[in-house]
Amino acid sequence: SSVRCFVQLLAAGFLLTYLFEFQTWWLVLLVLAAMVIAATQIATSRVKSRIPGLVPAVFVSLFVSSTAIGLIVVEGVVQAEPWYNARQLVPIVGMIMGNAMAAVAVAIDRLFADLESRSDEMFTLVALGATAKEAAFPSLKAAIGAGMTPILASMSAAGIVTIPGMMSGQLLAGADPLAAAKYQIVVMLMLSAANTVAIVMACYLTYRKRFSASGYYVDKGIRDDNPL
After folding, report:
1. CA atoms in the 13 A half-sphere facing the CB of 42
2. pLDDT digit string (tens) for 34-71?
3. How far apart are alpha carbons 227 and 58 in whole angstroms?
4. Considering only CA atoms, which of 84, 26, 34, 83 is closest in space to residue 59?
5. Hey, is 47 helix, strand or coil?
6. How far apart are the C-alpha atoms of 169 and 184, rounded to whole Å?
7. Which of 34, 73, 94, 189 has the maximal Cβ count within 10 Å?
8. What angle is formed at CA 225 by the lines to CA 224 and CA 227, rounded to 5 degrees?
9. How far apart are CA 227 and CA 221, in angstroms?
């Protein structure tokens, strides 16, 4: 992991040097697309349950949350010129995507573990007339809460226990502490908003994979991905 981190960061440094100098909108979007693909692969590899068709749902949730929140911050707060300025857009989207990637992996893992533990309860609920969404709702709620826990803990500790990354970097660079605090507030709100969008999308796009088309919970022994 240490060697991989060392190589990846050096490669990123060389790539960003070229990107900042010769940036075009299509090249910036190509880099962002590669980031989403890599984040999707990492997030899905961290999910313990074997879930067919998980990759498209994770890709969509990461892509929508990262690009939407990233562009809002770049255009509305940073006011980059042009809007695809790589020096602002790529780091901001990278921060968002890194946090959302970890949060989505935790949420999906919790979702399917909780669905598994509640299988008898969901059989009963569906038999009594509940829809798949109604039967799965407690698991969806638990998964979203689990995915949001790290960013909520970071927000609670910011300024009291820790001085977060962007604020620390600006202070080390000699920026005004109040200005650094304002930028860090934007970052924390940006990350919490993106995590919320990504987690909710990922959970609602994937929970039906444990239900049949008619709304019944599919037990482990009769799933299509069952190795037996």
Report:
1. 14
2. 999 999 999 998 888 777 788 999 999 999 999 999 98
3. 24
4. 34
5. coil
6. 10
7. 73
8. 110
9. 9
Amino acid at 202: A
d(CA 99, CA 151): 8
198, two tokens: 């990504």
| pTM metric for this prediction | 0.85
How is residue 62 written in tokens? 């990461």
Q: How far apart are CA 28 and CA 71, in angstroms?
A: 13
Q: What whole-number percentage of the chain has pLDDT above 90?
A: 35
Q: Which residues contact 187 (CB under 8 A, 6 or more apart)?
A: 95, 164, 166
Say whether pLDDT at 227 is over 60: no
57: which 2 tokens? 């749902």
Three-class SS state of 206: helix
Q: Tokens standing for 74?
A: 């770049």
Amino acid present at 155:
M
Distance between CA atoms of residues 115 and 125, nearest Å: 13
Residue range 84-102: mean pLDDT, rounded: 89
